[in-house]
Every structure is written in C-alpha cells, then in structure tokens.
Amino acid sequence: MAKINPSISIVIPAFNGAKCLKKNLDSIKALNNLDEIELVIVDNNSTDSTLNTLKSYEKEVNIKLIENSNNEGFAGACNSGALNSNGEFLFITNQDVLFPSDFFDKLNQIYKDFKNKKEIVISPALVFETGKIHYFGAKNHFLGFSYTPEVGEELPKNKIIKRTQRFSGGTLFIKKDFFLKMGGFYKKFFMYYEDTDLSLKILRNGYKIYTTNDPFLIHQKKFQSLNEFQYYFLERNRIIVVIRNINNIQKLLPVIIVVELILLFHSVFVRKFRLRLKIYLELISNVKHLRNMRNKSKREANLLPYQKLSKTLDPILLGDFQRYKIFRKLLNMLNKFFKFV
Fold first, then answer.
1. For the whole model, what pTM was predicted?
2. Selection from 181, 12, 183, 176 nearest residue 87 by Cα
C-alpha cells in the first residue's frame, strides 16, 4: 500500500531487530489513522531476518525501506529517513516500541492545542513493559548529563502535559521542515546524546519542548549494564554536547576537572578505566576540530548560559552504586559544590 502525501512519517532506524519488529509493526498496523501514515525504515545493514520481516508487512503498511550498506548509527539513519520522508510531520522512534491505536489522534490534538506562533516539539512518555517509566521528560545538567529522574517509577494516572529540557530520540514528534531547519541530528555522535544535543539547539533558538503521559509508548527494553561500545559513546558524546552548546566553559573548567577525576575513579569500579583514558586522549588530540565545531555552533545560535540548566545530579545516575556510601557522599558533596558555580 502507498500514499503519495502522508501527513506523518514514522522514522525508525533498524538493526538486527527481527525479534522485536513484528510486535512493533503489528501495533503500527492497528493505528487509527494508518491511511495518513508512511513508515520510513532505515536498515543499518542488518545481518538477521530484519529485511524479510519488513517486507512481509509491505501490503499492510505503507513502508519505505532504505537499505544502508554500512551502519550509520541512530543519528545518521534518522537523518536519512527524514530526508527521504514525505510527511509534513516526523515521528522518530525505535524499532522496539509499541503504539496504542489512538496514539497520533491524541498527539495531533496536543500539537494543535499548544502550537502558537512558534513551532513546538512533543516527546511523549516511554514506559517499559512493566509499566515503569523509561522517559517522561528529562533534566539537562550544565556538565552534559541528561536523564529522566523518575526512571523506574510509576507513570502518573492523571493526564500531564509539561515543558521539558530534552526530548527522547525514541519518541520525537516534530515538523519535518523544522527538524531539517535545526540541522537534524549531529551525525558524528553515531548513537547516544544526539537527542540532548538537538534539544539544546532547539532551546538555544527559543523554541519549546513538551512531554506528556497521554499518549505514551511501550518500550520492549529491559535494564542492562553498559558494554564498552555504549559506554564510549555515552561518555564521549556527553563532553561534546557541552562543547557544542554550553557557554562560559572556561569558567566551568575547574568544576569539569573535578568531576572528570571522580568519573575516572568511578571507571575503575566499572572496569572502564582504559576506555575512559582513550576518550580523553581522543578529545585532546582533536582540540582544533572541537574548537572549530564550537565556533560553528556559536554562529548558528547563541550558546546556552549554564545557569539555565540543572545544577543538581540525582542518585539515579549512580545506578547499582547507590548502595555504596562513598558514591552517595561524593554525589552530595558535588551537588553542594555545584551551588557555588
């Protein structure tokens, strides 16, 4: 099936997702306004039966399939999907989410109710299959940390629509022209923090980001410890986010050094010490490039004053180490220190 002018393009990067895509596609197939939707799947060179699964739904869902010969990561695949989409709006998400049938009915109504003269972005909540919160708005700390403090808690029963400092890359409703105007995701992030980076750019340009618990998506994902590949991109990209978006880095330098020393100490416990050193060496060896990148970002829009971001880090960031007194004490000391910055 095909529609020449769909109103919404769902953009999903796919990679070895055969196990979860069937449930995802079944939920899309059941959407109330399926005739207004195209599904843009960007496959990052999967080696399982992902492509066969997708092709089996082509008669039931308006699927545009883009097959990459290399893995472009989440950021690159989303950008490709947006450029090759036909919808007025994009909904960027993951291959392992489940949609309620009235998802876009509710989302379209929120957009109409809250859209004023300036464009807006909406990022509905994500919950695990247990019903616990994965994403329901996020805090951006001035040192680049970005997270949902309520992870693992129950989603509120009463309907809430609220402002947030970051959308989630797994649940992004945005006008296509606006996404492209903002430059899309920074491709060199590959994965992780591309949503934080673009969220900060949107805020820097004076636009608003909203989240809501009605509608919400279900995420077929469980808590997992980070492997080295994930740790590398999370920690490297967090630092790059600060360089690209936050003003007065020179003033923050003493704080940055203290925090990075603590994280270096933490990396010993999680057996990532050598990897962390590799990240620092990589950043140091690319100082000229990072400086040029920061200057380019300044020309695009004023950098964000760090005072507008959070100065408090929540215990959720400690993960399993919350049970260790030394890490809780370090976090309390850090938060007291941040108050004087």
1. 0.93
2. 176
